[in-house]
Amino acid sequence: MNLADLVAFARTPKWAVEASVSPSGAPQAAVIGVAVTDRLELVFDTLGTTRKAENLRRDPRVAVVLGWDEGQTLQIEGVADEPTGDELVALKQVYFARFPDGPGREGWAGITYFRVRPRWARFSDFREGDPVVLTFDHGFFPAG
Fold this sequence. Notes:
Helix content: 10-25%
CATH superfamily: Electron Transport, Fmn-binding Protein, Chain A
Number of domains: 1
Shape: globular
Strand content: 35-45%
Number of helices: 4
CATH class: Mainly Beta
CATH topology: Pnp Oxidase, Chain A
Distance between the termini: 21 Å
Structural class: alpha+beta
Number of strands: 8
Largest sheet: 8 strands, antiparallel
Order of helices and strands: HEEEEHEEHHEE
């Protein structure tokens, strides 16, 4: 499996489970609508005043799990940031292609976009009985 295969798989589900760290150090999880770039970067929107946004700003380490329905999963661990300028414009195009209602949410006060740049990914396939697990570290991903 290569980067293009991981991207194709990650684009299959529209929803993912995102886990991050709360101020107390405890884990917290949320279901997010996620879009995926050709570099396996994950993009999602949220209100900038939410606990999720505040926690990601405080500690940007995040794990995201996609694709649990068909016995296949992709777990991505990475670092979240809030892109600006041309990067934000490009990422919003990816997000709006996946979620056509996204431009309507831009009118909401305080909407922001987070990108998760992967540092590590693990693909697991449980459909054949014994899981097939492929792990890629940050050296697998293009610099960015």
